[in-house]
């Protein structure tokens, strides 16, 4: 599957990528360096595709380290990337989500990162997303339509 979401939606740098089974965004429009990271030039400066994407979605990277949770260096999916303290947050989030499963109302509460994941995912059907996050499909629709969580999605 081929997409050019960034270009179409946000006039970002023209990064094309294909989405793998693991939901990795493998960059197909730019070369990789000898270590396998995607090379980009932004405002005349050399950078990496995954760092560029991450900063576009989550803001400036404060840590020097930006890790791939998927171990795929070719991947530029921001939700597969974590930096220093952010990594701890994600870990917390995963643990919280796990403990939320099976609570009285069976509805997990969405975090900001969940909402971003949902908002930028134009591939997965809404009903599938609803099941994945254990929420009503209407919750997904409202996020996509900008009815809810606008303070989060308007930054994207
Ligand atoms: Zn990935």
Descriptive tags:
single chain, 156 residues, alpha+beta, Homing Intron 3 (I-Ppo) Encoded Endonuclease, Chain A, 2 domains, three-stranded antiparallel beta sheet, two-stranded antiparallel sheet, 7 helices, globular, disordered N terminus, binds zinc ion
Task: Give a brief description.
Helix content is 40%, strand content 14%. It has helices spanning 5-10, 49-58, 84-100, 112-120, 126-133, 137-144, 150-153; strands at residues 2-3, 17-19, 25-27, 39-42, 45-48, 66-68, 81-83.
Verbal overview:
A hairpin with a 5-residue loop joins strand 2 (about 15-20) and strand 3. The two termini are about 25 Å apart. The strands form 3 sheets. Strands 1-2-3 form a 3-stranded antiparallel beta sheet, with no helix packed on it. A two-stranded antiparallel sheet has the order 4-5. Helix content is about 40%, strand content about 15%. Residues about 1-10 and about 100-105 have low confidence and may be disordered. The longest helix is centred in the middle third of the chain and has 17 residues, at about 85-100. Helix 5 packs across helix 6. It is globular and about 45 Å long. With about 160 residues, the protein is of the alpha+beta class. The protein is built from 7 helices and 7 strands. The chain has helices at about 5-10, 50-60, 85-100, 110-120, 125-135, 135-145, 150-155; strands spanning about 1-5, 15-20, 25, 40, 45-50, 65-70, 80-85. It folds into 2 domains: about 1-95, Homing Intron 3 (I-Ppo) Encoded Endonuclease, Chain A (Alpha-Beta Complex); about 100-155. The chain binds zinc ion (ZN).
């Amino acid at each position: 599957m081929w997409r050019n979401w960034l270009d179409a939606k946000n006039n970002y740098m023209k990064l094309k990528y294909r989405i793998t089974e693991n939901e990795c965004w493998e960059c197909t429009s730019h070369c990789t360096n000898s270590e396998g990271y995607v090379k980009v030039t932004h405002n005349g400066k050399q950078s990496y595709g995954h760092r560029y994407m991450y900063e576009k979605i989550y803001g400036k990277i404060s840590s020097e380290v930006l890790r791939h949770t998927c171990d795929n260096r070719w991947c530029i999916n921001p939700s597969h990337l974590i930096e220093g303290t952010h990594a701890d947050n994600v870990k917390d989030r995963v643990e919280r989500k796990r403990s939320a499963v099976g609570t009285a109302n069976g509805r997990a509460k969405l975090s900001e990162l969940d909402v971003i994941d949902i908002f930028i995912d134009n591939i997965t059907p809404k009903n599938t997303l609803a099941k994945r996050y254990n929420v009503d499909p209407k919750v997904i629709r409202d996020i996509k339509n900008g009815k809810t969580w606008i303070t989060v999605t308007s930054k994207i």
